[in-house]
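Assess this today:

___
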Amino acid sequence: MKFRLDPFPQVSANLLSSLLNARILVFSIVVAKIMLDRLYKYAVIVNPLGYDADGEAMLDILEYQNPATSNEVFYALNSYGPKGRQAYLTYLFYDVVFVIARSAPVIVVCTWAYKKAPAAVRPGAWLPLLNMFTDLFESFMIFGLIKAFPHRNKTAELITAYVIRFKWFTFQITLGIMFVSLMVGIYYGFHSLLADSVVMEEERQKKVKAREQVQEVLNRSAARRAASGDSSRSEAVKKDR
């Protein structure tokens, strides 16, 4: 069995073929931008006291606190108050739409650049997909904890803390893949342009050679006609004499 970075190459190929469309990409980017603005707005409502030393609002919500224990998760949700937790539920709705929307261009960037690369080194779409599903599961867990608040489920709280950490881990790997993919895209794009220029130069040389051969045939034909005409005129002159 050959080694592959992408264990699901067919899934990656199908996603690339379906998402590699200008309308889909533009639509997903626009939706992601709109959702990002809504996320910032509701993050400020979730924790109205979350301001830095310069008075700028911070996104001081649970997933950005990177909790490590169940108590940290519970205390964070408790600190938001009833209004903050209600705003958090709306925040989670926009977060789900944002995660799905931004995954489309991310998957394209992580797969399109490797179309001409060897199959074994193509990272594919499975890591961006894993990050997307982890993020969605995180939103589901936080939604359940807020709806059950103030009743506690320490197991669910601890799972939420682990999911948040795993989400950031897969997100950092996805960002790394995107950066490498851009470099790979530039590399293969340059070599494609170079190869195309070589092919175009070869075709140009062939066309020039073909035109020269045609011109040579025409010149020979004209020379034969001229020689034939001179010969005919010489014979006519002889007859006249």
Remarks:
- The chain has six helices and no strands.
